Every structure is written in C-alpha cells, then in structure tokens.
Amino acid sequence: MDLFWSRGYNRTSMRDLKDATRLNPGSLYAAFENKQGVFTESLGLYSRGLRREVESLLGGNDAPLDRIRRFFDNLVEGSHQDKESRGCLLVNTLIEAPADEPEIRAQAGEALQYVERRFETLIAEGQRDGSIQSQRPAATLARTLMTGIFGMRVYSRMPDGLDHIREIVNTLIDGTLAPRTN
Amino acid sequence: MDLFWSRGYNRTSMRDLKDATRLNPGSLYAAFENKQGVFTESLGLYSRGLRREVESLLGGNDAPLDRIRRFFDNLVEGSHQDKESRGCLLVNTLIEAPADEPEIRAQAGEALQYVERRFETLIAEGQRDGSIQSQRPAATLARTLMTGIFGMRVYSRMPDGLDHIREIVNTLIDGTLAPRTN
DNA sequence: TACCACTATGAACGGTCGTTCAAATAAAGA
DNA sequence: TCTTTATTTGAACGACCGTTCATAGTGGTA
Q: Which nucleotide is nearest to A10 (CA to C1')?
C-alpha cells in the first residue's frame, strides 16, 4: 500500500512489491492473483484506515461545524507532515486510473463517497440548529467540501502550495458553510 | 499531447508516440531528445492553449464576476463534453509526476499559476467596485478558486460526479466571492 | 550529373515488465 | 516415522520498455 501510495500504480513494479513484502513471486501471486489484486487489496486497506480516521475526527459531541473544522485541521496538519507529498491514495488513484478500468475508479470513488455521506449528515445537523447555512441542500454543501478536499490535494503539489492551504481551508469552510444573512 | 492527456505519462509508450506522430524512433529522438522531451513539449503546447483560452474567457468588458462565471461555465460544459474524462493535463501531471522529478511538476504548476494570477487581478478589480467580497485578500480568493477547479477535476471522476459539478461550481463561486453582509 | 549535407528509416539492444511453474521445503496426518 | 498435502522458492518466459545507430534516401549546390 505504501509503495502504491508513494509511486502510484504504474511506477510500482512487482519486483518492488516482492522486495517490500519479502514474498516471492509465486507466493505473491498465490495470495493476490496478480498485480491488480495487490492494488485492490491496498485500496481496501487504505479505505478502512480512512474510515476509521473519519469516524474519529467527525465523531464526538462538539458542534457539527467544529467537528468539520477538526477534520480539515487534521488534513492541513497531515499535508505538512507529508514530506513525500504522497497526498491521498484514493484521489491519486481517481486521477491515475485509466477510464478503461472503471472498477478501480469505482472502488476509490466509493470509499470517498463514504466521507461525503458522513459530511452530509453532519451538515444537515448543523442546518437544523442554525449553525450552518440552509440556502443549499446538505448534499450540495457536502459535495462542495469534498471538492475542496480534492482540490487541496492537488494544490499541495503546486509550487509553494503548502504555504497556502491553511487560508484556503478557512476561506472554503467559511464561504461554504457559514450562515448567510442575505 | 493527446496521448499523454488520455493515458498519462507512464502509460504512454514511445511506440505509441511513434505511431501517433508517424515519426520513426530516430526522428523522434532527433526532435525531442527523449520521452521526457516529448512530454515537456506537450505540456508547453497544452499550456499555451490554456493561456489562450483563459485570455479569451476572462477577457472582455463584462463585470469581473461575470467573466469568472463564464470561465467556470466553460469548465462545466467542457467536462460534460469530455467523454474520455481526460480532465486537465496539468492537474493530471501534478498528481502523476513523482516527487523525484520536480522540474516537471514545476512546469505544470507554473502554467496553472498563470491562471491563478489572472483570477487574482480580476478579483481585485471586483473588490474595488464592491461586486466581490473584500474580507479576504484577492490572492486568497484566487487560490480558493483554483482549488475549486482542481477539486472539480477530481470530482468529475467520482461515480455520477459529473451530475453535480454544476451545483458545486455555483456553491463555490457564490460562497467564495459574493459580498458578505456580516 | 556528381557531390554533399542532412534527414528518415527500422532493426536491434539491454533492461525491465508482469507472470508462470517445476522443484525444494515445510507442515500436517497416519 | 513415513506419507501426503501445502507452501515457498527463484529461475525462466515472452512481451514490451526507452533508446541507439548503421544504413538508405532526399534535396540542394556546383
């Protein structure tokens, strides 16, 4: 998983995987069928980790907006820690996976949709207590946040991009979720 | 360029390029030095095209906000036309290019920064006439728009993602640029 | 027409890719 | 302890990778 995360699918070879797992080709193929199998399993592992993290960050009893902020704070923090700038394996996969292999794209997409759904219920909650704007449906706001996450993942790779994601997050969350008085 | 755009750098082979250009290896190498040279040239060609398009879409005498809207309308329209879902070559490159080849990442990043700068001056103009919010610096708002563009490029690859980018764009532009009355 | 500088051609190279499989080793059952 | 069943091993395969280069061909000049 780490290898695919760092180098992407195409730049990771079976030899790399063999060295990293200390499994010889035969064992690797017995366990995973083929290279795509290893990748699929890696996506699964990553997705389960993401799920756990999302549950922990978006859970709790704080106000919905605070929990969302906590999530994005963690994202910004993580981006700065990410010295290899590997970004998010699922986002990378969505971009790298060719259009002619839709099942991989779907797998990455579904894992991300879980996050989106989690955002949506949280936003709906905030809309009910008035702490989040109700001009637009919760689903739309959730999708906009997801787009923001994806965008940050790319922006982090821009020259000096990391220097600005903090303010981008603030602008995005405030602009998208804050109650509007017009 | 089309090949790299559709398949990415790693999945495009010199054989593919030879067939597409109808240039034999020797000629290809004489003209471009090597595969990376072809790619660099492709990035350049793409960037010049983007530049032209940005100039045309963001130019004119309409209100700044309308010109920005025109740009995003075009982006949404283009995404729906993009049957192969190739997205943006520069964004794809930013994600696919490994961290250990920074000059390619930089080339893609600089081309995108041109768009960002264009946004920034336009936003500053809108801030002066009050049609765009002034709570945050134009540079920050421009970066947030860029993040939105990048995010849409990814979101388009989500399952049914294309069905929602219209509303995402509206939410993003409105939330980011509209004057705030608090 | 004869020469020359230049370009195009495509076979060939060493290397790496994903994958297979017969043989060696280990584990389990009798 | 001996036989049987799993698992591990790593050499080997054909295909394709990016790249090179001797050779053939072309267009311009004298």
A: C17
